[in-house]
Amino acid sequence: MPVYNKLVRGKIPEIIEKSGKKYTTKILSKEEYIKELQVKGFEELKEYVEAKEKESSLEELADVLEIIHALAEYHGSSVNEIEEIRKKRAVEREGFKEKIYLVEVEDE
Predict the structure, then answer these.
(1) Care to name a GO molecular-function term for this sequence (predicted)?
(2) How many domains, in total, are found in the chain?
(3) Is the sign of the CA dihedral 78, 9, 38, 52 positive or negative?
């Protein structure tokens, strides 16, 4: 039996059960949950980077966004609040649309 040891979406056990397979799950503590959300975030971002087609790229970005939603909720916030912070930072420093790549800064 394959061992996964990873955070999965809520309906995954139901999907596995419908396939006729047996599985084992556990409910994570708060500390385990935040750690696994962070791990899952890196996993999903890596999958986005490795995606070759637009459709799979967008699906992976949706998965990254799902992790952001969960992390915001974990921290007692919301994606709306994060979006407001993003907007404020964009006003202060702008975004990345200008494609500026900083090479170096002279030390004093």
Answers:
(1) hydrolase activity
(2) 1
(3) negative
